[in-house]
Design a protein that fits this description.
two-stranded antiparallel ribbon; mainly alpha; binds zinc ion
Length: about 90
């Protein structure tokens, strides 16, 4: 029963991001927890916006708060599109 819910959660997450519900349902049921996490991460990897480190120019996912290359602290951006906030 618990496996069913794991499969279901993975499937729902996959469905939200436009992937196959059935495939991820199977993954979630066979690999409980891992399947769900994988589905979530998979979604992030596809939809996560990216930004450039102002210090060294490395392209990083939005959720990274410290640059992996130069170690600069990155503030979490409140305005996703850089173009919209470019009037300063
Ligand atoms: Zn950097």
């Amino acid at each position: 029963m618990i496996l069913f819910f794991f499969g279901l959660s993975a499937g729902v997450v996959a469905k939200i991001k436009g992937s196959s519900f059935f495939i991820w349902f199977m993954i979630g049921a066979v690999l409980p927890m891992i399947g769900t996490i994988a589905a979530v991460l998979y979604r992030n990897e596809r939809e996560e916006e990216r930004r450039t480190c102002p210090e060294c120019g490395t392209v990083l996912p939005l959720y990274v708060q410290v640059c992996t290359r130069c170690g600069r602290d990155l503030e979490f951006p409140e305005d996703p599109p850089p173009e919209a906030a470019g009037t300063a």
